[in-house]
Amino acid sequence: AEDGIRDDLVTGVQTCALPIFCFMSAASLQAFRSIVLSDDAVRSQVHADAGVDDIVSLAASHGHEIDKAALLREHARAIHAAPDSVLQAINSWGDALIHAFGAEAASTEV
User: Fold this and answer.
1) Residues 1-31: pLDDT tens digits?
2) What CA–CA distance (Å, rounded) separates 2 from 79?
3) DSSP H helical segments within 1-110, as ranges?
4) What DSSP character marks residue 16?
């Protein structure tokens, strides 16, 4: 079936839990985004973190379970939608993440 997976050991169609997980992860990502935008210390930590696993762990430490795929999709969506002038100003992974979270990279510099 188009919206699920067939299992020859089970009668009918079982719906895959992946879309639910992705939605929950997206909701957690949105909640964590709010923290990033409102908390200078968290925003600085996002800017300083070196990798996706670091951001996933940081989100978890604030009670938000996100997965790498959701974070990378949001990052790709933000980068794709950004005008060239914004992309030209991105100098690091931290800058790119800050942009993906909707904050200005310049606001994180000390």
Assistant:
1) 444 555 455 555 444 444 444 445 678 888 8
2) 31
3) 18-38, 40-48, 52-61, 68-81, 84-89, 93-100
4) P
pTM: 0.64
Helix 52-61 crosses helix 18-38 at what angle (to 10 degrees)?
80
Q: Enter the tokens of residue 2.
A: 């188009």
| CA separation for the pair 66, 106 (Å, rounded) | 25
By three-state DSSP, how is residue 56 classified? helix
Residues whose CB falls within 8 Å of the CB of residue 39, separated by 6 or more in sequence, listed in order: none
- What is the Cα–Cα distance from 108 to 110, expressed in whole angstroms? 6
Three-state DSSP class for residue 52: helix
Residue 89: CB atoms within 10 A of its CB come to 13
The pLDDT of residue 84 is above 90: yes
Summarised one tens digit per residue, pLDDT across range 56-75 is 898 999 998 888 888 888 88
Pair 103, 36: CB distance under 8 Å: yes
